[in-house]
Amino acid sequence: MFVVMRTGASEAEVNGVKGLILAEGLTPFENAGEDRTVIAVVGEIGKRREQLRVRLEATAGVTAVTAISKAYKLVSREFHPENTVIRVLDTVVGDGSLSVMAGPCSVESRDQLFETVDHVSTHGATIIRGGAFKPRTSPYSFQGLGVEGLRYLAEARQRTGMPIITEVMDTSQVDIVAQYADILQIGTRNMQNFSLLLACGRIGKPVMLKRGFSGTIDEWLMAAEYIASAGNPNIIMCERGIRTFETATRNTLDLSAVPLLHHLTHLPVVVDPSHATGKRWLVKPLAIGGVAVGADGVMVEVHPRPEEALSDGEQSLTFDLFDQMMTAITAVHGHVRDLHGDLLASASAPAKAGG
Amino acid sequence: MFVVMRTGASEAEVNGVKGLILAEGLTPFENAGEDRTVIAVVGEIGKRREQLRVRLEATAGVTAVTAISKAYKLVSREFHPENTVIRVLDTVVGDGSLSVMAGPCSVESRDQLFETVDHVSTHGATIIRGGAFKPRTSPYSFQGLGVEGLRYLAEARQRTGMPIITEVMDTSQVDIVAQYADILQIGTRNMQNFSLLLACGRIGKPVMLKRGFSGTIDEWLMAAEYIASAGNPNIIMCERGIRTFETATRNTLDLSAVPLLHHLTHLPVVVDPSHATGKRWLVKPLAIGGVAVGADGVMVEVHPRPEEALSDGEQSLTFDLFDQMMTAITAVHGHVRDLHGDLLASASAPAKAGG
Amino acid sequence: MFVVMRTGASEAEVNGVKGLILAEGLTPFENAGEDRTVIAVVGEIGKRREQLRVRLEATAGVTAVTAISKAYKLVSREFHPENTVIRVLDTVVGDGSLSVMAGPCSVESRDQLFETVDHVSTHGATIIRGGAFKPRTSPYSFQGLGVEGLRYLAEARQRTGMPIITEVMDTSQVDIVAQYADILQIGTRNMQNFSLLLACGRIGKPVMLKRGFSGTIDEWLMAAEYIASAGNPNIIMCERGIRTFETATRNTLDLSAVPLLHHLTHLPVVVDPSHATGKRWLVKPLAIGGVAVGADGVMVEVHPRPEEALSDGEQSLTFDLFDQMMTAITAVHGHVRDLHGDLLASASAPAKAGG
Amino acid sequence: MFVVMRTGASEAEVNGVKGLILAEGLTPFENAGEDRTVIAVVGEIGKRREQLRVRLEATAGVTAVTAISKAYKLVSREFHPENTVIRVLDTVVGDGSLSVMAGPCSVESRDQLFETVDHVSTHGATIIRGGAFKPRTSPYSFQGLGVEGLRYLAEARQRTGMPIITEVMDTSQVDIVAQYADILQIGTRNMQNFSLLLACGRIGKPVMLKRGFSGTIDEWLMAAEYIASAGNPNIIMCERGIRTFETATRNTLDLSAVPLLHHLTHLPVVVDPSHATGKRWLVKPLAIGGVAVGADGVMVEVHPRPEEALSDGEQSLTFDLFDQMMTAITAVHGHVRDLHGDLLASASAPAKAGG
Questions:
Q1: CA-nearest residue of chain D to C276?
Q2: CB contact, 8 Å: D137 with chain A?
Q3: Beta strands D91-93 and D86-88: pairing type?
Q4: How far is C228 from chain D (nearest CA, A)?
Q5: C56 — contact with chain D (CB < 8 Å)?
Q6: CATH 3.20.20.70 occupies which residues in chain A?
Q7: Which candidate among B157, B325, D115, D232 keeps its CA 20 to 30 Å from the CA of D107?
Q8: How far does A163 lie from chain D, in Å, by closest CA?
Q9: Which CATH architecture has domain C86-340?
């Protein structure tokens, strides 16, 4: 349930409500919107619901106590109508601008990373991506450079001034990855690694949560709720294709997910056409599609010489293809943003908490 | 295999090749391109392949004999590099313009049809859709008005001057539907109704082939090949969502299919966001997405009062929503067409056969 | 809804109820069980429901009027608690015995058919299968011998005294197939070919309805309802695998469907492990599995020389493998039948109507 | 690749081969079969393959050096033809006997666990299951008793003398779970949690690896390979249903996986019909099906009062239903084991390593 405070409720009144919730062994989450403050009550409420509602309604400063219709609370638009806007270094995600996360699938060497970064950072990318810990189907495949890769990524940040996003595969890696990276990525196979979700919920850096390749929209939002419930409101959702019967593409990019999420949640949504299609030549058209349906950004893999890549070469863009894609999506983004206004309540108004 | 004639080959030479193929009990299909004529050899070639190749190569006017790498021949871009452009009444599909097929899911009455048609025909639609024979999951649901519905559709054509598309469910209906409609639609459940495909291949009107909700891209192209092999080159492919584990949408719209098809086939491709999403408010964003990835058109359901619709009311657009969608996709279409040039070899050059 | 007559209701009373239903433009279906007669009311009842219920309850001989909770009526166990038992020539399906439908995928020649039939008919098969009209993905693949194949099948019946099952692909083939075959098969791609379902509902021979490879249990039962509502109660359900992401098998055999169907419907259920797995060596273990979960029979493909088969050679059993499978499933059938008693209310009591 | 030693090769010869492999930075895995010893070479061999093969072939005691055709090596039957037989306390899994893992979904209290355990341990179960750390879709659902639950499980082992299996969700829990449990379970959502797989590969206790609900057979075997490559050969595979379009059951139990795995791997395979179906009344028929297709065991959820269960009550068996299932599967197991002999090379011959 959530508690709507009256416009102009005092800090003391807000704290009174929070205290009552804490005293019940539950957790209050505050969303201080422009007009009014809303406090979500989170935890196992069970049979106390009705009694608690009555007591909260009778508390000073409270206008209404409402049920949240979804199983996810903190990440729902019901609780938090304004878009979440995430600022990392000088970059912003979710404010109506177009985020472009680009870089190699794996950091293979200092040279390969810098060569790629030097290109994408000067041709439209806003965030540098690169894998240091790599989840590979086979234990005998290249597993990434690990901490060495993280160090190169940190150097790449210094070199470009741009934030770094990289994957964290396990709770034991959260601290070290958070030390080097600006945004932590949770991969598709870990969407329901609940221990990892909670661990990423306890750090002070934004998290990008990839959709599980067989995760429903509801499960994906519940996974985001895990992160939010642990205290981290800065979550980016990334649609990267789902597993279906079709084999012509590596996965099936579910572009319906973008408007659906914009309707259901206040979190920014980006699209990864590289993993979704698994084919270099399909990245541009699907990146265009993603931007056209209203995505806040795209994530793509770029490699100086894809044929030599240690992972995912088939789907990595050459520099030339990256430039073509950038030209296309920049043009499309300029035209479509206004078309989805009805789905994006208040794109430019970041909330105090949660944004 | 297909036989490439030399530039400027005479009609006699072309006929010589065709005669040789016919004498083998196989069927020749001619594609007279701008530069040169190509003749596909279709049928069960089996073990004669090598011997036949040698004889064809030695025939007057022949430049080369090549294998087609796909199981589908006539609908492949390998055989027919130019886009197929389909003209129906005053409308053209596949020439780079944006086709908009709109109308009610079911023709429910003369009034309901005309009310809808009067709106969409004056607000951007280029083709009128409406179901007379309705495939329904339950035998106890409204099954459509049948021939009465076809008659109203023919009246709607007279009223608007626009072509009519409607579904044919069975071989026994092909003649009567072809008598009234301008384009015959094969529904998703009939994508592999091979008898119906062949029957639609023998008529002189264009056919729109919806993707089976569990049909792979390859199976879909093979289904189109059935129609083409029976003599009908005027086929429109319609992506309408595939069945996946996700239940937040009725089906999952596979927008990757659009660039994939443009790469693999010369046939025009439209997108149906109404059936794919099953939700009215998702039609506009996905229609935008479809146009953005390069679709030649969209098909949508419109109803004057969706809440009273006898079928698919949930996904039918109101007139107002139709207008909003039209504004959006018209704007996007103007901007994106050039962005996909690499996938669309020669959009403005209709072939003699096949176009 | 359905109308429960009192025990010992007279024919006049039953006819009175039927007359009232017919007068409403609806159709009565009678199930004369051992204890009492039940009459289902089928058609678009709509808003008349409550009024009709009251009138029926007040009619002579009526004990109760009840709603059927499922969208399918005639095929539901609610309406018809006793198992449907189907007699064809000297064979019975659904009476607790084990039906084995065996024969070649395609009838390729008189010799090939007879060689196969001579083996399987003397080694445990109870019904002969063989395709005359073949649904093939490619228009250039062998399409079956057609009517010639039907004639050979009729000869095979004479030769063995066993009933013949073969596929009908289109409404236009129903008459000719029904003339030669004892059981008509509707293939997986035609599960929702509603015209074909209705046409098969109007003939006097049993129909085997294969599950669509992407058909849900509910859709499958609704498809059976089409056949039953057109007047044909003798329907056999055949689980043949569903399309999933897994590619190690051709499809995924859904053995849960067997107990589910036995719970939801009174119709017999057989399992086809040949099409489900697509691999010869998996046929025996999955046939065992099917019998173990309570299937009323299995359908398998057998070929004298699978490596020469014109279709589905990979999954065809050799004579030797067929014999091994027969030994195994006969043994298992003897042991498991009693274990599923709770799902099979009254396996040995065929109903008057519907059985 | 793997190195086949001659029959009677000396320990010195075996060590010579191992030394050569280690010197290359690769890892040797020895399978000492009855006749001869085979050594798998594991790691990134890359371009050294041919050179290494020649050198190994020339080494004393070596009969042949062969490629393994699959991406998984150590878990393949090619490398290790004998079945892996796992002994835990007085129980054996994979030796042809029927393993029955039973207990509550979650350990909810000491009383609930003991009440359940007292029943199942005296009615046919061979291993006690119970969740202490629970992966839940919602962060607000009951998350299990944690270490307290582990302690109760250890008490249950003392009470019954039977081994305990419980889930480990994260690398950080491996040590504590391994301290209390006899078999560690990796859940469906963690099948590709590669860090957890490696951590479980480094402990000295058997691991049961559930199939990811969207994991292919190949990915599942590669996940097992992660565990084996880290040094733990004692792995049990558990089929628990895959995610498909069908919603009549919670998941679709893929019983084809059982014979497929028995063909591809030497590891034992059990089936979990509780999670697969999500419906109590379907557990018995599918447990029968699983045993019939050759599974080495079943895992089921049992609760004294399922309607009060804190998780998965819908699918939990009552004591009475558990007893009925036990009677059924015991009977079936006695009859079917011999029927699958061709898939189970040498069921009674545990290997020295790997078994």
A1: D256
A2: yes
A3: antiparallel
A4: 22
A5: no
A6: 86-343
A7: D232
A8: 26
A9: Alpha-Beta Barrel (3.20)
Residues of chain A above pLDDT 70, percent:
96
Residue C344, pLDDT score: 52
Which of B138, B186, B217, B310 is the best residue to mutate to test the C interface, defined by the most C CB atoms within 10 Å of its own CB? B138
In B, which residues are within 8 Å of D244 by CB distance?
Answer: 245
The half-sphere exposure of B121 on its side-chain side, counting CA atoms within 13 A, is 19
All CATH 3.30.70.1140 domain ranges in chain B, comma separated: 2-66
Please state which CATH class domain B2-66 belongs to: alpha beta
Delimiting residues of CATH 3.20.20.70 domain(s) in chain C: 86-340
Q: In whole angstroms, what is the distance from residue C190 CA to residue C20 CA?
A: 36
Q: Is the pLDDT of residue C312 over 70?
A: yes
Q: Answer yes or no: pTM beyond 0.95.
A: no
Q: Could you tell me which chain C residue has the CA closest to the CA of D336?
A: C332
Of all residues in chain D, the one with the smallest CA distance to A220 is D137
Q: Which two tokens stand for residue C109?
A: 């020649």
* CA pair distance A238, A257, nearest whole angstrom: 10
CATH superfamily of A86-343: Aldolase class I (3.20.20.70)
Determine which helix (DSSP H) or strand (DSSP E) holds C237, and give its type and residue range. strand C235-239
> Looking at the complex, does the CB of residue D248 fall below 8 Å from at least one CB of chain B?
no
pLDDT at C69 over 90: no
Closest CA of chain A from C221, distance in Å: 23
DSSP-assigned letters across all residues of A146-207: THHHHHHHHHHHHHH---EEEE--SGGGHHHHHHH-SEEEE-GGGTT-HHHHHHHHTSSS-E
| Chain C contact set for D246 (CB, 8 A) | 216-217, 242, 254
Q: Is D244 on the interface with A (CB under 8 A)?
A: no
Q: Give the bridge partners for C152, in sequence order.
A: none
CB C117 within 8 Å of CB C155: no
CB atoms within 10 A of CB B60: 12
Q: Does C259 touch chain D (CB under 8 A)?
A: yes
Contact C83, C109 (CB under 8 A): no
- Note whether D253 contacts C255, CB cutoff 8 Å: yes
Interface contact C327, partner A, CB < 8 A:
no
CB contacts < 8 A, A to B, total: 125
Cα–Cα distances (Å) from B250 to B197, C189, C335, in that order, read 26, 20, 43
Each residue's pLDDT tens digit, B113-165: 999 999 999 999 999 999 999 999 999 888 999 999 999 999 999 999 999 99
Q: Determine contact: C237 vs chain D, CB below 8 A.
A: no
Tens of pLDDT, residue by residue over B134-144, are: 999 999 888 99
Q: Which residues of C touch B134 (CB under 8 A)?
A: none
Both tokens of D67, joined, read 């490629």
C chain contacts of residue B170, beta-carbon cutoff 8 Å: 170-171, 193, 195-196
Task: Note whether C250 and C286 are within 8 A (CB).
Answer: no
